[in-house]
Amino acid sequence: PEENVMSVLYVTEQGATIRFNAGRIVVRKEKKVLQEVPAFKLEQIVAVGNVILTTSAATFCMQQGVDVAFLSTTGKYHGRLQPEFAKSALLRQRQYEHAQNAEFCLRTSAALVTGKIKNMLAMIRRQRRLRESANEAGHTPIQALERLLPKVSAATDIESVRGFEGTATAEYFK
Prior knowledge:
Order of helices and strands: EEEEEEHEEHHHH
Largest sheet: 4 strands, mixed
Radius of gyration: 22 Å
Strand content: 15-25%
């Protein structure tokens, strides 16, 4: 349900400051406001590189269950400011339960791979990479990807889905 959708705020601007002000998380650099987010639906803040988190913002995050992760500019994990109870604890619990359900994992992985293949098709078409010149077997990358879609949907195990994903990637980059 959409009412449970939480937001993640990524702050990548070097030298930016994250503040809490009047129910909003405000990201500033010098005197310029870069971004303002209503704080009530914020689940996590990811600070990348040289980003400052004020004491008022840190206190708000801890009191309201907002997780703050700190990464280097290259994405290396440095640490986190984690509240005692996260807003999404029940969601995480359900996710762990679902991760133990083989049928759920198969359906989810098939849906993800199907989405990836459809995105590959869209990118090929958008970039006019149709390569109408067929390969030795007489097939274009679009035809090969389209043939994989029903196979992914019919897969009976995750290993097969992974194989189709690899085949799709190989076709895409031919």
